[in-house]
TrEMBL record:
Keywords: Hydrolase. Belongs to the UPF0173 family. Residues 7-195 form the Metallo-beta-lactamase domain. It comes from Terrihabitans soli. GO terms for molecular function: hydrolase activity. The keyword Hydrolase applies. It comes from the Bacteria. InterPro entries: Metallo-B-lactamas, RibonucZ/Hydroxyglut_hydro, UPF0173, UPF0173_UPF0282_UlaG_hydrolase. This is UPF0173 metal-dependent hydrolase IZ6_12270. SMART domains: Lactamase_B (SM00849). SUPFAM superfamilies: Metallo-hydrolase/oxidoreductase (SSF56281).
Amino acid sequence: MRITWYGHSAFKIEFDGKSILFDPFISGSGYKGGAAEVAKGTTHICLTHGHGDHVGDTVQIAKETGATVISSFEIVTWLQGQGVEKVEPMNTGGSITVDGFTVTLVQAFHSSGELVNGVFAQLGHPTGIIIEAKGQPTVYHLGDTALFGDMKLINELYKPKIGFVPIGDRFTMGARTAAYAVNNFFDFDLVVPCHYATFGLLDQSADSFRAQVTKKTEIRVPEKGVPFEV
């Protein structure tokens, strides 16, 4: 599996001819390559929730590539209204198998919505996303979330080995609570921290998080747009 982080919560994982893009907030993330570069080869887009810094460039990328967008029913319906053609609607707790891999939406403690004609519209519930595929490590993108005890149940049920974990504080877990989750609730082989340093309101580095993770887990802080293999 090849993993690329594009800043904020935007990731791409590639395996077996699939190229799955998570939360493609590219234009505003500080990634200099641009959305058109990231779009190349994308087959699927998974969205954790409906905030603009996660939906990001989804419409552009989906139209350019014909990628299938997988997310909550409310989000994909809203995107269909903007011209996105291929969607897979889901909701929290459900799983689907599409093109040889399984997607499960699990709970996250956050919010989800966007301004539509000057009015804040609710776009379903926020989620985390689990990707399972034969012969590949299970990936869990936690989305934007607070700490919650049922993370332990998610670990027991799905046994994720790679975690994309928000650490930026204020709107999500910060270094202390994210490290607590990694130390006490999960058995990750690899953690990639995310949702930090994009804006001034967020923590600006992963140093404190790394220092507080005591479990034997690899913490990788990649450069934006530089892929690595696992």
